Amino acid sequence: MKLSNILAEGKKLINDQITKEDIFILIEDIFHLERYEIIMKKDIELDESKILPLFERLKSEPISYILNKRTFDQHEFYVDSRVLIPRDETEELVYLVKKEIEKNKLRNITVLDMGTGSGCIAISLDLYLTNQNIPHRVIACDKMNDALDVAKINNQKNGSNVDFFISDIFENINENVDILVSNPPYIAKQEQADMRVVTNEPNTALFASEEGTYFYHNMLKNLKKIAFPKLIFFEISPEQVDILKKLAEKYAKGYHYEFICDMNKNVRFMKLERRL
Fold this sequence. Notes:
Blueprint: H1 3-11, H2 20-31, H3 35-40, H4 52-58, H5 63-67, E1 70-72, E2 75-77, H6 88-104, E3 109-114, H7 120-131, E4 136-142, H8 145-158, E5 163-166, E6 179-182, H9 195-200, H10 214-221, E7 231-235, H11 241-251, E8 255-261, E9 267-274
Helix pairs in contact: 6-7, 10-11
């Protein structure tokens, strides 16, 4: 089938969930083509049996799971249905942590990524710190063994040196931590999530009790267990600001806190900094 016809079949799928970019990415990956080739060589003949079944899967399945990969912070991560697909907002979270490390000129630091999933946060920070010649240790935990299996694949794939632990919150963590970073499950109710997400991605990585604040509550309540980190970074829902203020004022009295917007101007991050 000509590439032009394959493109036409792909364009039929475009809707609120499937983008033109998804179609191009699939074609690029399956046929090992550059973007300019797709644009300039529409008359080339390709084996449609390699791509049309994937177009069918795309109707109900995220492209990251179809290709088993997602680019995050300029690194490629393996992903499958055992872990949440890394989001652009979480890349912003990593950027925020990097910026604060630079601003505070931190050295000899231990970083903990709580609820690591695919390992994208921990691995990206470890690679950054190594590249900057900053002495450090990055540790990451998750309560799901399946998720840790994926994170360890990514640790090896990216040549990083993260230590992974099975742990529910800080249960199995016995470390003095300088920076705590977490993108925990924070959706309050199933009906608040897109059904395509709910039916494909692990619900344990999406939903939390206490109006979505269960993990924040338990992390802030147990900061003593990790020796009261200097800096704490959370990815959050904009609807949780008032609850998180109360939790911080109750459990993190020695910290200054602030809320930070993402690129879409939604409150998406909470930063807590321990007062001297």
